[in-house]
Amino acid sequence: MTEIVGADHATAGPASIAQGVYGARGNLELLACDADDGLWVFWFNADHDEDPLQTPEVPPGRWSAGLRFAAGTRYLDAQIVQSPIGPNHLEVLALDAEGALQSWYWSPEAAFVRREADAASDVARFRLDDPAHDGTLRVATLGRDGRAPAFESAPLPYPERSWHPASEGPPLHDERAGRLLGELGALQRALPGTARSAASTRHGGTVELVWREHDGLLRHRGVPA
Length: 225
Known about the structure:
By secondary structure, this protein is mostly beta strands. It has one helix at residues 175-184, and strands at 3-5, 11-19, 28-34, 39-44, 67-69, 75-82, 90-96, 101-107, 111-114, 123-128, 137-143, 150-153, 164-166, 196-200, 206-212, 218-224.
């Protein structure tokens, strides 16, 4: 079933989805840019009715109303991934309107915190890869000058990160998301460049899709792996 996420908030640009670890079965985490100011994070309660209730404000099988952070900056794109370190922190890269690729992390103690060191500057597009087992991050970028450098960041000294040139990064285009949207018959309705996907453990294994359609609304759908 396709669901609309964050319909009560004006968001813009591509969104990003990740398999989280909170809850009995692992929430889904969805990150989107506010249309004017800051970022929105939404989470899907993947627990079942018979599981212990850990988030009473979000019933099992429902998306949250959303939480806004990073106010004071307009963003063009943002991606979120679940980190294996922290333990179980979330990592965020967010591209602001000036081309700075900001580095953020979420922890239960401090919520979302922006790091002093950005991942890159003068960025037009980017794509963050899933973290390695040790927490290393890789990102591919397309610069405003047309160059396409990649960067990586080892997790130490965590929670701070420094970013260094890498030999390669992930593909800038999420080909799996586009292919699955085509199979669902939604490719023509999706705004170009807004479809993203992530592997999930829901229902024994799914691919979670998120995309924006021409009406401006974000859609989510889990497709059997």
